[in-house]
Design goal:
Pfam families: Peptidase_M20. This is Peptidase M20 dimerisation domain-containing protein. InterPro entries: Amidohydrolase, Bact_exopeptidase_dim_dom, Peptidase_M20. GO terms for molecular function: hydrolase activity. The chain has two domains: 2-82, no CATH class; 99-192. Helix 2 (99-113) packs across helix 4. Strands 2-3-1-4 form a four-stranded antiparallel β-sheet. Helix content is 34%, strand content 14%. The chain contains four helices and four strands; from the N terminus they run E-E-E-H-E-H-H-H. The longest helix is centred in the C-terminal third of the chain and has 24 residues, at 169-192.
Length: 193
């Protein structure tokens, strides 16, 4: 959340601090301010999300955003209050799949479903609780394709038109079972010790 107090208009620009600009996203998702077209409001509040492909990248983006906003507020003789906590919760770290588990999923998925049915997904900058687990133990997040144009299952889970082709559920259950069973069989000696 950001609250700006001013009798002047302020325009804030966040310039890329270096690195790959496609590895970071800043989304302003709400703006609250005045109610009249001809009156400058005493304050403006806006907020949104910051996302990065790495947790360190997220921390760098947070620091840079704070620098830019405070600097622009000072230039315009404004006060800026920046709160990057989401109702007392920490920012989501990046989801980074463990390389050895990734290879395990590729191998078992290829055995079960055939190599042409196992594809590397695109990197995405989603906020995901699973990342907190990955800070404690190695983990992997995977997706099981559900697209079925004949049934109309073509929209992403965040779409209001999302429809699940339930025929994929046994495939997903079999894949998860095989992943766990083979992993445990291959690593049972290290677990027993």
């Amino acid at each position: 959340m950001l609250i700006l107090n001013s009798s002047e208009t302020i325009f804030v620009t966040l310039i890329s601090y270096g690195g790959n600009p496609r590895a970071h996203v800043l989304s302003v998702t709400y703006v609250k301010g005045g109610t009249a077209l001809n009156v400058i409001p005493p304050y403006v509040e806006f907020g949104g999300t910051l996302r990065s492909l790495t947790t360190e990248g997220l921390h760098q983006l947070q620091r840079r955003m704070k620098q830019v906003i405070e600097g622009q507020a000072a230039v315009h003789r404004c006060n800026a209050y920046i709160n990057m906590e989401n109702e007392g919760y920490p920012a989501y770290p990046a989801v980074v799949n463990d390389e050895s588990l990734n290879l395990h999923v590729q191998r078992i998925g290829s055995l079960l479903l055939g190599p042409r049915n196992v594809k590397m997904g695109q990197k995405v900058m989603a906020g995901e609780d699973f990342a907190f687990y990955q800070e404690k133990i190695p983990g992997i997040m995977l997706s099981i394709g559900i697209r079925n144009e004949k049934l109309g299952s073509i929209h992403s889970p965040h779409s209001p038109h999302f429809f699940l082709d339930e025929d994929v559920l046994p495939i997903g259950a079999a894949l998860h079972t095989a992943l766990a069973e083979i992993y445990l069989n291959e690593h049972h000696q290290s677990v027993e010790q």
